[in-house]
Amino acid sequence: MKKHIIFSALGIILLSSCVGILDTAPRSQISDGNMWTTPNLSRAGVDGLMQTLYRHIDGLSTIIPGDGTGGLNRIGMEGMGYTSILDAGSNVAFLRAATKTASGRENSEEWKSMYQTIHACNRAIAHLDRSVVGDALYEQYICEAKMIRAFCYTRLTMIFGEVPVYLEEVDDVNCTKGQSSWDECWAMIINECNECIENAGFQTNNFSGERLCKPSKGMAYALRGNAYMWLAADKNPEIYPDGKSIGVAKAKEYYGLAAADFAKVKECGFGLWTGKWEDFYSYKNEHNIEMIFPMEFTFTDNFCSIWQWVIGARSHLNSWTRLVPSADYVDDFQWADGREFKWNEVFTDWNKLTAKKREVFFLRDSLFAYRDSVIKGTTVEKYIALNGELEKVISRVGEETLNDYYINIGNEARLRSAFDGRDPRLDKSVVTPYKKYKFINENSVNAIDFQLRWPRFKRQDDVDDSDLFPEFASNMVYLWNKGIVNDGSTIDRVRDGTDWPLIRFTEIQLLWAEALVGAGRVNEAIPLVNEIRSRGGMPDVSGTSPEEVLETIRYETRVELGLEGKDFFNEIRWGTFKETKFQGNDFWDPQSCWGLGGWKTGYYYVEHMWPLSAPLDEILMNANLKRRPWCWTY
Questions:
Q1: 341: how many CB neighbours lie within 10 A of its CB?
Q2: How far is CA 115 from CA 16, 138, 517, in A?
Q3: By the 8 A CB rule, do 615 and 111 touch?
Q4: According to the model, what pLDDT value does residue 8 have?
Q5: Residue-level pLDDT at 26
Q6: pTM for this structure?
Q7: Are 313 and 321 a contacting pair, CB within 8 Å?
Q8: Ranges of the chain whose pLDDT falls below 70
Q9: Which runs of consecutive H residues, i.e. helices, occur in 161-286?
Q10: Which uninterrupted H or E stretch holds 508?
Q11: Structure confidence at residue 10 (pLDDT)
Q12: Which residues are CB-neighbours of 628 under 8 A, at least 6 positions away?
């Protein structure tokens, strides 16, 4: 089934954002001098263009390792979005610092990783030899390099707003360009896509043939359409100080161009995953018509995914639980009939109680029985050790609140009614309380049942239906179920071979629908949204006004793409980042399942925190780079 990732053998040496493969490489490595001299080496060189996007060493105590290994920051970008929060062991200065600093790792490592890849692409384009690889592969390889480069520039522009543009091979000495403007950056990306779309030698899709899973014309249409969407958003003037409105007519024109491109992606053969919703993220299903541009992983050292280390719990492959779903995000999941979810529809007095006292609704059954069994010296279940937990609960919520609201037998079932009647994708995406989920213990290849209960008892990973135990145990928070491997394809938290979708068709179809609404063609958008909702088990769109359909598209985008590192970019483009991630406040404290903050460091919102500033270390090396004013320090 897989895979032809062979660039670990290249011995590529990348020391900084402008340094590439050195001609002085050791004999065990391949240098620029001979990389492109044979068909096999040329193919290896093109396959290796994404090498710098892999995080070969992951320091999970931080978001990006500080040893220069860099790589695609999918952990940090997901944590910066609305759908996830990062646990207390992770440091994200962009969110946690009241004053934003250009020396933060979010700035420097993301910049470095993207430019290393860009310069690798520039070298490939300069050195690929038609006479060596033949006409057909030469055109394919050139377009692959241009599309990977366009992807990196797309990501850079979405993060930094304005960046230097290098389209030719360049060394450190000449890495001195200043930032191109917002419009110039997107125009360059559009031009890259144009050239590849018009190239008859570039593959239409990546489902079969020699270049399986590699860039294709479908990817070019997707990137070009995305560029038009960002141009239509016009930098969101309310959060980008020098943004100027382009006007309704121009925005509508861009939306129309974007919609046309997204339709072309489907014409290239890509489409929605048609299997069970929850089965998309799996090793056995990773090659499908959804996958427009994947990041390929193997079970080989340095090219494995460590995603199982990031999500899950200690009960699952000894995970560190670095990313957990935001309670605000979980609360956004609709009822199964499409109605808005509200806690006071489940608990009448929800709004009367403080966030601290609402813990009473999340308590497990039989707390009194467990306490009495301990007093009597008996053991209700051999693996349960509950000493003083009821007293701790009383000290937090108060004895009066406990007596008024706690049900000794039935508390769990009452809480489940808040989840069982919701959007079916909720339980498939998120581990919710008092329901059995399959996880793999690090000492066994067989998945067993765990439940998220509160308060937790003694950790027993080898006992079926034990309490799910995350990295931290001081509070009850939701955990991700999406992306958890429990089919036996991986039994090691650092050896997951499941590919990561950098661009997939569900995202494109939702962008397509959004573009149609922006172009004033809402009736064409509704069927696209309904197709995705139907696949997820939800009813058709209820409201048909542009505002209602757009809000449904945003809901579907968050639900469908949660944990995929997309939300930060979408909330910024929509102008909703403060409203969602920070719940409209200047300071937001990550919360427990019942809305109580304090289990980790909070986040600070300041005006104009986006785009990120060019990294301080790059500014010090290149005097032509502009410093961002307003909230950034240097």
A1: 18
A2: 9, 23, 35
A3: yes
A4: 42
A5: 37
A6: 0.93
A7: yes
A8: 1-33, 55-70, 88-91, 370-387, 443-444, 458, 473
A9: 182-197, 217-233, 248-267
A10: helix 505-518
A11: 46
A12: 102, 611, 612, 613, 614
The whole-number pLDDT of residue 250 equals: 95
Predicted local confidence at residue 28, as pLDDT: 42
Contact at 8 Å (CB) between 163 and 169? no
Nearest to 403 by CA among 416, 414, 389, 393: 393
**Cα gap 588→632, rounded to integer Å:** 20
- DSSP track, 589-623: --B-TTS-B-SS--EE--TT--SPPPPHHHHHH-T
- How far apart, in whole angstroms, are the C-alpha atoms of residue 365 and residue 382? 17
Position 114 scores a pLDDT of: 93
Instruction: Please classify residue 430 by burial: count the beta carbons closer than 10 Å to its beta carbon, then call 0-12 exposed, 13-18 middle and 19+ buried.
Output: buried
Question: What's CA 532's distance to the chain center, in Å?
Answer: 19
Separation of alpha carbons 87 and 321, rounded Å: 7
pLDDT digit string, tens, across residues 497-540: 899 999 999 999 999 999 999 999 999 999 999 999 999 999 99
DSSP-assigned letters across all residues of 322-381: -EEE-HHHHHHPPBTTSPPP-GGGTSTTGGGS-TTGGGGGGPPTTHHHHHHHHHHT--SS
Give the phi and the psi of residue 84 in degrees, each rounded to 5: -130, 160
The token pair at 603 is: 């986040």
Q: In this structure, are strands 430-431 and 100-101 parallel, antiparallel, or unpaired?
A: unpaired
Domains, the chain, ranges and CATH? 1-181+582-634 (1.25.40), 342-418 (no CATH)
Closest to 126 (Cα-Cα) out of 92, 173, 167 = 167
Give the type of residue at 417: S
Q: What is the pLDDT of residues 407-439, one digit of tens each?
A: 999 999 999 999 999 999 999 999 999 999 999
Cα atoms in the Cβ-side hemisphere of radius 13 Å centred on 40? 4
Ordered DSSP codes for 478-498: -EE-TT---SSS--STT-B--
